[in-house]
Amino acid sequence: MSPAIATIADVAALLATGDALDRVVPSVLGIVADALGAHECSLWRSDETGLWRAYSLGASTASVDDVRRHLEGNSLVGEGIALARLTTGSRSLGAIVVGVSREVTTEEFVLLTTIGTMVAPALVHAEYSRQLETEVALRTRQIEQQRRFTERIIDSMPVGLYVIDREFRIQAWNRKRETGMQGVSREEAIGRTIFEILHRQPAELLREEFEDVFSTGRIAEFQMESSASGEHRTYRITKIPMRVDDTTVTHVITIGEDITEWREAQERFAQAEKLAAIGTLAAGVMHEINNPLATIAACGESLQIALKDMADAGIQPPKASDDYLSIIEQEVHRCKRIVNGLLEFSRPRAVGKELVDLNEVIEKTLFLLKHHASFKKMSIELDLDRQAPPTVEGNAEQLIQVFMALLLNATDAMQEQGRVKLRTRGAPKGSDWVMAEVTDEGHGIKRPDLQKIFEPFFTTKPPGRGTGLGLSICYGIVAEHGGRIEADSVAGQGATFRISLPRVTTS
Ligand SMILES: Nc1ncnc2c1ncn2[C@@H]1O[C@H](COP(=O)(O)OP(=O)(O)O)[C@@H](O)[C@H]1O
Ligand SMILES: [Mg+2]
Fold this sequence. Notes:
alpha+beta, Beta-Lactamase, 4 domains, 5-stranded antiparallel beta sheet, 17 strands, 22% strand, binds adenosine-5'-diphosphate, binds magnesium ion
């Protein structure tokens, strides 16, 4: 093989490797320099910004002007310099320039030109790949931005959201679903089936719910109770069909919204309405009962006088009639107490109101209770707000009755021994409510009972011990003062009763 052919073969082999131009060109220049015994070999590039030396081997002697003059003229061989044009089609890409200290032979010039013809397409090819790479990088960046934007949208929503495909595999999983006790990270969730991730839920039920949305294409909505987060919470679950190609349902979007507070507010509202209705009813019934009660009491008294007259006249009254009459009197009395209690609940007597400090109310209540037998063994912890005394407009006597009822319930719940905490707080900045709390360490209240304790006659105490009127009277009095009473309790862990009353605006 002639040396020229060998050189061409070497260059062809190099170009065929498909290596990056930055690596190939210096090697090509090296081969050319060797073949021609050149002290310099450079690749010059030209584009709209001009002509410049892109690669160079050996100390360069040719200037830009030299190269340009040679390229523009037709003498590609000159004093100590030889050039090979790099062109494809009508485009001029530059030149390969060699520096030699002797005449270049025709054969050498042909070799140089051949190599130029070989290198030019490689240059163009590299240029295209680079453009393509830039384009791809740009598009990738745009797609990534778009993806992040969509992700941000679903992450910003205050609801848990995930999307599954027909194979029940998770395709989207938002931030809210990553947090909390049951949170699973996005990396962990994406690509796995929903049954693997929500393994606490019965898989068959879950599958049915999804199948239903896939087959009907209709939105499904239901409520779900869960204690998975440690406390009891209510969620509204919505399953929304999604169609990627606008024909069949391809995905299902599931949204879970914590509606515990909303539901509690609804329940409170319903409770308040119910109690108001009971109150109105009770007031009507009680008035009806009051009159016959008064009649019975009057008749009893008359009979007692008649019996006394008989005895004075020496006539022996019927056996045990005295006892019967005193039973009638006692029972009438009991009825009256219940009637009055109910009336107080339904319509607390409109009594005079004045400025009352809840701290003082509590202290007076404790003073009155001090001598109460069931209260003797209790220890009381006071945390009263002296900085901003909780002052309200109200009736001290009625408010004492409220705290008395709460404290007596606390003693009952703790079997007369244990600690009760009494706390008050003046209205914090920006709030119109003052607050008082009674917390005990008793047996607490079962969840279903929490709804009912303010109803008249609801009691869990044995007959003769509870009337079930205490809390309903408290409710009536607090409502009459424009406030609210709430109970908070976990069975077995004590109870807290919180009273909120509107603060007095002194200005
Ligand atoms: N501090 C408390 N701890 C536990 N349960 C309570 C407490 N206070 C009230 N309860 C529950 O609420 C019910 C109703 O209370 P209340 O209206 O005062 O009626 P009574 O005390 O006559 O039963 C009680 O029977 C009891 O089940
Ligand atoms: Mg009671």
